[in-house]
Design brief:
It is built from ten helices and two strands; from the N terminus they run H-H-H-H-E-E-H-H-H-H-H-H. It has about 210 residues and is mainly alpha-helical. Strand 1 and strand 2 form a beta hairpin. Belongs to the cytochrome P450 family.
Length: about 210
Amino acid sequence: MTLSYGSLALYTTAFTFIYYFLLGIYNVFFHPLRHYPGPLLWRASPLPKNIYMLRGLYAKKAREIHETYQGTVRVAPNELSYIQPQAWKDILGRPLKSEMYKDMRFFGGDAFGRDSLVTTLPEDHTRMRRIFSHAFSNTALKAQEPLLIKYADQMVDTMGALASRNDARAVNIVDLFNFCTFDVMADLTFGEPLLLLERGDYHPWVH
């Protein structure tokens, strides 16, 4: 029996629909997280959350979900969202109790074959954190304060200049925070800024 392209496409579409329909039923009624509340479609499929993530509206929607269902809510078949302060201790660990292992599907795993401070295993985290700790001591932060103030003032001045323009062009304030952040990091690391705030545009290396 030879199938035409039309029949093959029809069978493939039907199989895909049935598969995801049954997967949605499993996620809602049989999944290990089935007892946690949340919107039905969000519990059945990761698609609603991904759509809100791509539109940049997930944080707002997550807050609405928490206001509706309270406490811990299920925002995707395999994801829970917490707002209780106690969750920080339960998830990130407490004295004499190790933290839970990170989900590398979220954190992205290692980069260039080496783990970062964010993705490393708990047993290596203390050693790596100790290396960075000197840069964030009170003495180091006080010494860096004039530099931080300089770029913060420059960012505020840039915001004021953009706000006083006599046109209706929109200003992407996220870009300004990125400019300030990368100028600070470049100055602290290399001894000179990338001049992003001054130029008002991204450096090719950053963008």
